[in-house]
Amino acid sequence: MNIQTSTLLLANRPSDKVHHCRLCGTGLKHTFIDLGMQPPCESFVPREHIDSMEAYYPLHVFVCEECFLVQLAEYVSPQAIFEEYAYFSSYSTSWVAHAKKYCHQMARQLDLNRNSLVVELASNDGYLLQHFLPLDIPVLGVEPAANVAKVAIEKGVPTRVEFFGENYARELVAEGLRADLIVGNNVLAQVPDLNDFVAGMKVLLKPEGVITLEFPHIEKLIAENQFDTIYHEHFSYFSLLTIEHMARRHGLKVIDVEELVTHGGSLRIHFAHEDSAREIQPSVARVRDNELKAGLHTLKVYTSFVERARKVKRELLSFLIKAKEEGKSICGYGAPGKGNTLLNYCGIGTDFLDFTVDRNPYKHGRYTPGMHIPIEPVEAIDLMQPDYILILPWNLKKEIVNQMRHVAEWGAKFIVPIPGVSIIDPKELQP
What we know:
By secondary structure, this protein is an alpha/beta fold. The protein has helices at residues 3-11, 78-82, 93-110, 146-154, 166-174, 194-204, 218-223, 240-249, 282-293, 299-303, 306-325, 337-346, 379-384, 397-403; strands spanning 19-20, 27-28, 30-38, 57-63, 70-72, 118-121, 139-142, 159-160, 179-185, 205-216, 236-237, 252-260, 266-273, 330-333, 356-357, 375-376, 388-391, 413-416, 422-424.
């Protein structure tokens, strides 16, 4: 093979395919991070399928040079992800408490009553909308995963099993339904057709209604090395700068921004119609200025991220190798999507973790995708008494350490992998 032919073959590799920004259409040519080939993070493997083939897809993330949307190509369809979904929001006590606080806040702020309508998109198992019911405020959940929606309906939360977009919004309006409040918690990232989704919210929203969207903040993801929050079901990662670009495209305006600690650092963005009387709060300018100071309008901040993720990988593997060579036993706590990204990127299997545990009984008896680590009930930790417990949902580390303080009785310690490897000794914690 001559050099010219070889060069031609390299130039036409599948990885060189040009993808386009799902928000503004610009060709994508700048890598944010490439986490290799990975299985979908919520595709937990039943015991009877442990020897079957798994599907792997690229976890290659780009950044748009025009609107700075950080994004994956749509390698896995939402239908494939959500046909049967393994994530039930109600198994996180702190997340349910967060949702309840939000409901009471918005009920007061918008003066919601029995003549209002709150619509949540990707309403999961009713973890949020259930808190409006005692307030006598009508609600409607729209949830694509039938197995999860069933749990919400059993709680008395009216729920439609649908994928939301402009067409479905028009169907709801034709039924006489329009929303005073539209809620979207950690759903915007999971929407491959952003423009259709946002257009649908605009159609469904009353003239003086409000939309709130909550999602992990790309500024925190970069600053705190949260590469494991990247997985196939999250197609996009947002800054306020990008969100304002999105709002303008659809005749909406950002009227308020709340900075939250959830999921390692999130934003809750409040939107209204562009011609709404609702005023823009000072928080919008404050967060925008902070993002500009952080350089989120420059490519260099995004393209330099990959090296920091590689450093965490080396640190974590070095610690685990040393612990195993010393004869220590290690298990995981949790089986979240972010944990599966971390395990697969670092190549951490049962050679390091004997098992992991989870509060969600749906996952018990299954195995993590890719690495095939068995998932047990939380009680397995007391039975096995490991020396180290790797906290995979590190955003819940305070909740988990408080729940499991008793592991100090046999000398166990917790490993927190993000933003860098740290060890928590429960013996040293204040009672």
